[in-house]
Design brief:
Arc Repressor Mutant, subunit A, OB fold (Dihydrolipoamide Acetyltransferase, E2P), 18 strands, 9-stranded mixed β-sheet, alpha/beta
């Protein structure tokens, strides 16, 4: 992922001397060049050799490194304070999320960019028809088998169609994810963010918008995007929407393919790295190769930083994210959320279709123009449904569950041995309500199940002892007591049947 060294250090003692020397220089100076370190070493070494030997030690040393010409600059990283929401900020964020309208200034900016590129008003019949054609083509391509997708969105009306149809929902769902990061204390007072595959700037613009509701936090946002037309759109939207003089700096996107992680222009350390609706589009790469891409960027992650991967809720894509998440877990990252591994096991994610939702957005100005046709349903995209994973390098998880040795709880991997019996399980709620007017149904997981497991609560059995499952959030751990195991042969899944005699509580 990084430049290959011409030659490695030959002895462990060489590396010890290198680390000792770097520690000494870093304690005296906040920044220095690797070429300066070479003069202190007993054996001759190039800056590339020193870089390769030092790279695995950077996190432990609290240092970041950036390529500068033929040299590397090393900087001491001072951990930023976490951004803890005040009561006033929490109120503003709550009101902000309750607003379902796409920001009028951004709506106008998108319309303005389409008008600029086409030379006509967005209500022009020819423009609208071409936008409809682009949207339908993108949707048709998306529903093809993964290996046959192209999903470029990189030029002409494909970019304009993306802005009209996908951009508003992706922007609004990013609000919810940023709020979740904020409430979990994963944002910082002074933060560097890196958005990979930025498109027309969904994530950077959402960060600029979200930060307006914080009192003093600052952010510096970098992004990588290969499409020149997306970069052009990003520049236009940022100019017409991002608040002048705000506490968020939006750097111009780095023009590059995200599959190439050896990019000297990247910031040395990022507190938040985002892959938003992009990894699924690397159709030519295997899960292992996609994991390598993520791990390549993970080297830029601050020791207490977070990687956020977001994908659409469609079954194949969503399940693919869970498979990728497990591959990254096996490579050393920790899944912070939404998954919980109650028993310290690895899951079987091949059938794990798990996503969350938020209230739908209001149709944008462009969507309202597009629906004036025979099939209006094709051109309105307002539902917010997405799958995500948050990953860390420091082992931190949103919820810790320590199961005592004398617990009576059964692993979900053992439910098949308890069909017809009443048991207790500890598991996370991993879906919204999948049921109907008569029955609540929720997917649950403890990180051990080999087949899907669902909690089934008939509405006439709902009561004070078991209604916690209704109010619990996506990913929240719950203890399901006195529930009966049933097998569902139609779906090759297991149900834990909740009755009025069952209890559902939060684990202590």
């Amino acid at each position: 992922m990084y430049e290959r060294p011409v030659q490695r250090f030959r002895h462990d003692m060489d590396k010890k001397q290198l680390v000792s020397t770097v520690k000494y220089v870093a304690s005296a100076r906040p920044a220095f060049l690797l070429s300066e370190i070479a003069t202190y070493l007993d054996e001759p070494a190039t800056v590339d050799q020193i870089y390769a030997a030092l790279l695995p030690q950077l996190d432990a040393l609290g240092l970041g490194i950036t390529k500068t010409g033929g040299d590397y600059e090393v900087r001491r990283i001072v951990p930023a304070l976490p951004c803890v929401l005040t009561a006033a900020e929490e109120d503003r964020v709550r009101d902000y999320l309750a607003c379902r309208s796409f920001p009028p200034a951004l709506d106008a900016a998108v319309a303005g960019y389409i008008a600029k590129k086409t030379g006509k008003d967005i209500n022009d019949p020819v423009v609208l028809e071409r936008l409809r054609h682009a949207i339908v083509a993108q949707k048709d391509d998306y529903w093809k088998p993964t290996e046959r997708r192209s999903l470029q969105y990189t030029k002409g009306y494909s970019v304009l169609g993306y802005l009209a149809y996908h951009f508003p929902v992706y922007f609004m769902q990013t609000r919810h994810l940023l709020a979740q990061l904020a409430r979990d204390g994963l944002l910082k007072e002074e933060m560097t963010a890196l958005d990979l595959g930025s498109g027309p700037g969904v994530v950077p613009l959402a960060i600029a918008d979200f930060w307006q509701h914080l009192d003093s936090a600052k952010a510096e946002v970098w992004s990588v995007e290969r499409s020149k037309e997306h970069i052009e759109a990003f520049g236009f939207l940022a100019q017409h929407f991002a608040v002048a003089g705000s506490r968020v700096i939006l750097h111009p996107p780095i023009g590059a393919d995200i599959a190439d992680t050896d990019n000297p222009s990247l910031p040395p350390k990022a507190d938040l790295i985002v892959f938003s609706n992009v990894l699924n589009e690397l159709a030519g790469l295997s899960v292992e190769k996609r994991a390598e891409v993520v791990m390549g960027y993970a080297r830029h992650l601050a020791p207490d930083g977070t990687i956020l991967i977001v994908e659409p809720a469609e079954e194949v894509t969503s399940t693919g994210l869970r498979v990728l998440s497990l591959a990254l877990k096996k490579k050393g990252l920790t899944i912070y959320a939404p998954c919980s591994f109650v028993w310290g096991t690895n899951c079987t994610p091949d059938r794990c279709w798990s996503f969350t939702t938020a209230p739908p957005i209001q149709p944008t100005r462009i969507m309202q123009a597009l629906v004036a046709c025979d099939e209006p349903f094709r051109y309105v995209n307002t539902d917010i449904k997405y799958s995500y994973v948050m990953l860390r390098k420091d082992g931190k998880t949103r919820q810790a569950c320590h199961v005592s040795r004398d617990t009576r709880a059964i692993r979900l991997s053992k439910v098949h041995l308890n069909t017809g019996k009443k048991i207790t399980v500890i598991a996370a709620k991993m879906s919204g309500d999948l049921g109907d007017a008569k029955t609540h149904v929720f997917r649950i997981c403890d990180g051990s199940a080999e087949k899907p497991v669902f909690a089934v609560l008939p509405r006439f059995h709902a009561g004070p002892e078991n209604e916690t499952v209704l109010s619990a959030g996506y990913g929240d751990l719950l203890v399901f007591g006195n529930v009966q195991v049933r097998y569902n042969p139609d779906h090759e899944a297991y149900n834990i049947f909740v009755t009025r005699d069952s209890t559902i509580t939060v684990p202590v």
